[in-house]
Design brief:
alpha+beta, 12 helices, flat, 31% helix, two-stranded antiparallel sheet
Length: 333
């Protein structure tokens, strides 16, 4: 009995001694965590997406509190989180209320493109397929539709459709940019959520070649650029690009594009109207109108030519006397 009891007591004593030593060591060598780090970490989303450039939310919290890192780097948290962090740090932060979301710059599904070969590898991924002749689609710039981006999306905002292309739920997107990094074609771009006119193509081929590869490709014809009233569109390397900051969503480019490479998701069309009793005839609205649809002499009531108005709202933003209202003339599903 004693032979069995002694090892048990010895083992128990050793365990107790080690436990007491570890408890003492944890107190003796405890690293004090900055109070600000804990507070910042509490308000961060906790997704640990790495979009901020730091190893998870805890790493970002430490970088802000201890090293003075930029307080507006949390894309999922957005302006609200940035403002709360600024309160904790006792400072201010410049943020924009414009939410950036991932947008796929491609429409080349299986009805618009053809397959060059049937990939039968064990590991079917966009990255793997892209190693073989720049992908299996006729357009080497297009979405490969295997969903590498969907696999890394932490909120399941991306899905692969049966049309051989992915779809992004922009309302669920948290702006973490993981899909941007995962796409081997670099055709997912972060753009403002509220901007609904987009060139959904990434082809750099010349017109004829681009059209052969995809029936809805941008052919770099420049018609959109020539007709843009605010010079928001440029054509470089055979591809049209829209400056989101300049675009007023008049949709002239959408209607003029011969291949329908430019898409719109604008839900309402509006036109300006002068409120005569408020108008003092300052001509500020007329000076900013890109299509010169506002007429009227100085110190006279102005009028808007409804046929020519493109609903850009530049006049609405310019008028200091609230003498212009925007009327909805069309609603879309």
């Amino acid at each position: 009995m004693e032979a069995i009891l002694f090892p048990i007591l010895a083992l128990g004593g050793t365990g107790l001694s080690m436990g007491l030593f570890l408890a003492y060591a944890s107190k003796k060598f405890e690293v004090k965590v900055d109070e600000k780090v804990e507070k910042i970490q509490e308000i961060l989303p906790g997704i640990n997406c790495g979009a901020c450039g730091y190893p998870g939310c805890s790493g970002y919290a430490e970088a802000i509190a201890l090293n003075g890192a930029d307080m507006s780097c949390c894309s999922p948290g957005g302006p609200a989180v940035a403002k709360e962090i600024a309160k904790i740090m006792g400072g201010t932060v410049e943020v924009t209320d414009s939410k950036m979301v991932a947008k796929l710059l491609c429409q080349g599904d299986c009805s618009k493109t053809t397959e060059k070969y049937d990939f039968r590898g064990e590991l079917k991924s966009c990255a793997a397929i892209n190693l073989y002749a720049e992908g299996n689609k006729s357009c080497k710039y297009g979405c490969l539709g295997c969903g590498d981006c969907a696999k890394v999306c932490p909120v399941s905002a991306i899905k692969v459709t049966d049309r051989g292309i992915i779809e992004i739920d922009e309302n669920r997107c948290i702006s973490c940019k993981k899909c941007v990094s995962a796409c081997p074609k670099s055709i997912i771009e972060m753009l403002p959520l509220e901007k609904r006119v987009v060139v959904k193509c990434s082809s750099l081929d010349r017109g004829v070649d681009a059209k052969k590869s995809c029936s809805i490709a941008c052919i770099g014809c420049g018609i959109c650029s020539k007709n843009c009233p605010v010079q928001a569109i440029t054509v470089q390397n055979n591809l049209a690009k829209i400056d989101a900051a300049k675009c007023v969503e008049c949709e002239i480019c959408v209607n003029k594009c011969p291949t329908k490479a430019i898409t719109t998701e604008v839900k309402e069309r509006k036109k300006a109207e002068i409120i005569e009793e408020k108008c003092i005839g300052c001509t500020a609205c007329a000076r900013v109108c890109p299509v010169k649809c506002i007429v009227g002499e100085v110190k006279q009531k102005h009028k808007v030519d409804q046929e020519r108005c493109i609903g850009c709202q530049l006049c609405y933003g310019k008028c200091k006397f609230s003498a212009i209202k925007m009327n909805i003339v069309e609603r879309r599903a």
